[in-house]
Structures are given as C-alpha cells and as structure tokens.
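pinned: reference chain
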Amino acid sequence: MPATCVGSAMGVTITFGTSAFAAKVTGISGGKMIRDAYDATHMGSAVGTDFGDVRWMEQCPADLASVEDFTIEMLYDLDLLPPIDQAAEAITIQCPPRSGQTTGAKIEFSGFMKEYGGTFTMRDLRRGQYVLAVTGPLEFTAGS
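pinned: its structure tokens
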C-alpha cells in the first residue's frame, strides 16, 4: 500500500510507493529530460545561404533518452530512516491544485534514493538533501 503524504514544499508532496519516508521538503530541482543528437554532417552537406554561407551541422536525434536525477532539499532529521537501501519503487511528485482545480498536476516515475545526507550549522536548522535516480520515463498528469 502506498505511503501517504511524505513531505511538502509549499504544497508539493513526494510519495514513495513502498517506503514511508517523511522528510520535510524545502526544495526540489532536477528531472531534466535529456536526448542526445548525433552529428550527421558530411562533405556533401548543403552550404547555407545566410551568415556568409556558413555550413550548418546536420543533427540526427538519438534513439535513447534519459532523465537527470532529482535533488530534494530538506530539513535534516536524524530520527528519519532513509530508504537508501531499497530497490526502485514508484515515486510521485504531486503539485497542489491551481485555482479552479480539485487535483494538481503530478509527475510519476520509477526510481530510488541514491544519496542522503545533511549538515549542522550554527544558528540554523539542520539542512540536508537526498538524490533520486530515475529509472524510466517521467509520466505527467495535468491538473484537473
């Protein structure tokens, strides 16, 4: 059974499919989708008619794509047991609904925690972060 609300950053929640990890999230970054391109330029490539007849490289899209890791900023709590030793699981990043919506947009993917740590600083709360590796495509669901 999926865990319930696992942490939030201004209404955004992160839910792990099998782990009940509940960090207090302060920020989320990453998740950039990446697709390489191959250089297909050859000696017979057409000469351009702009910028002084510059020859433009011919790009061919790669067959494979990937997703950059997500980095989650959090308040570091030594009482929490991170799922750093767990297998890949379903992870959901749920946004709060916009005005007029009942359900906010969400991103779902299969992934796992690959880094976890924090710092202790004078005159501040303990801060930390964890990194989620993405093992498949991102699935986007629009808010409604």
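why pinned: The two ends are 24 Å apart (CA to CA). Residues 8-33+65-141 form one domain.
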